[in-house]
Amino acid sequence: MNIFDIFFKEEYKNLEIIKNNNRLFTIEDIRPSVFYLIDKLNESKKKYAAIVSENNFDFYINFLASVFARKEFFLTTDLHKLPAEKNEYIILDEIPEKTEDNKTFDIKFNPQNIFLNLFTSGTGGSPKRIIKSLQNLITETEDCRRLFEEHFRKPSTVISSAVPHHMYGIVYYMMLSMCNCDSVIFDAQEISYPDTADLEDKIFVSTPSFLDEFRKHDIKIQKTPRLVFSAGDKLKEETARFFANQNIDIIEIYGSTETGTIAHKQASETEYTCFQNVEIAQDNAFQAVVKSPYFQEPSVVVADIIEKINDKKFVLKNRNDRVVKIQEKRISLPEIEEYIKSCEFVNDAYCFKLKDKLACAAVLTAKGQEFCIKDPAGITKFLKNNLKNKTEIIPQKWRFLYEIPKTKTGKTNKQEIEKLFLKNISIPLVLDKKVSENEITYNLVFLKNSNFFKGHFDSLPILPGVVQLYFAHYFAQCAFGDKIPESPVKKIKFSHTIKPSEKLSLLLKKTDTSVSYSYKKEERLCSCGVFPIEKR
User: Fold this and answer.
1) What are the start and end residues of each CATH 3.30.300.30 domain in the chain?
2) pTM (two decimals)
3) In CATH, what class is 423-536?
């Protein structure tokens, strides 16, 4: 049952469709907000709507209203991505307190004529605008339903760690519930931390990077989800095994913003199977060429190298857009990453071209971390020497991270990695972290070759207080994703000095009004303070 067909019909007004803050909402409950927004959109002389809601409940209602108002709309959390004519947009964020009661509508529309705009970074790294019709999304969702029909035979709830502003989230999270509103309830709670996720008998829409957090922290799932979807990147084999040992097999979805869904496979399989209405071929460069009813163009070339098994099955080999030219030589970045990861000191690696040089963000194993603490310059030299007989081009710039940063859609966050390389301050080595909803502990080391130890002081180097404040603020923003002001900082206290290469813990605690931090060395308090959070 499709919500777009039944929303205005009185016989369905008591159908429960959304769960938010542990409360179930019926169609009748949300109608006043939707009606008010329809009027607001219809009265506006602006050509477009831009849905920027970070709250999933607000997003759902703003999306419905935009469709029923027959507005072309944009989905983004970053207004800078919108085309230049900002005065052409009505911005939809939080739903209004003001509502319209006792109002009736008789809205008819053709989903083929309702258009929405999404953004993808594209191979050049700049936002690329993708236009789709509502019918494209409905068709894709209906095909997904048919394929996994057995999981929809009794009522369920869909919950997500992925946001609905992107193609994967909007189809598998939001549209999946909208197009099956008689059997699937939309749970608006965003799952941000694995240990708080109640997945019992739910459809869980997630990403490889988020699912990997379960394995990293050995979080066992006590009550089995009905179905787990993963998309955005390749799921690690060890993560797939971790879930398989709990009798949970993950469905990996392969696709893109341009194409929508292309194919699926179970995590234990190597071959992808195309969705029923998807055709896949190869061009002369062995790249995937896709035709389907999930997008507007006749066909789309995906920058992925595939090996076709038959008309419906293929193996994903490599991304063609990860071949770069450095020093007049063409090199495959995935190939160099595999060479780096073959070393016992490295667990993961991501290479990219930074200006005219090759850069590498590497995640060290426990052995690699100890090596790095003892000899920070030595481990870089060792890794370079280890590559000399394997590749002509060797990374000249290195950063050692706890994990490769990911976006909310599970893709490698190239922009965040590049920012880390462009910083003029050395980054501490994070050995481990423990996460809960409002508290996080980083175990870390400020390496002895860090640039902020120079001159502070030559005979007895210690960590400057301003550096402690800087990284307390830096990790607070990483942990909680909020805009936390750098100043003023309250209740600052310095109790003991921090020397190069000493193992520390940085504890961050968040409340509604502040984030507190404390550096400790073997349970001895070194420094602490509080960052107030501005009320919005």
Assistant:
1) 327-406
2) 0.77
3) alpha beta
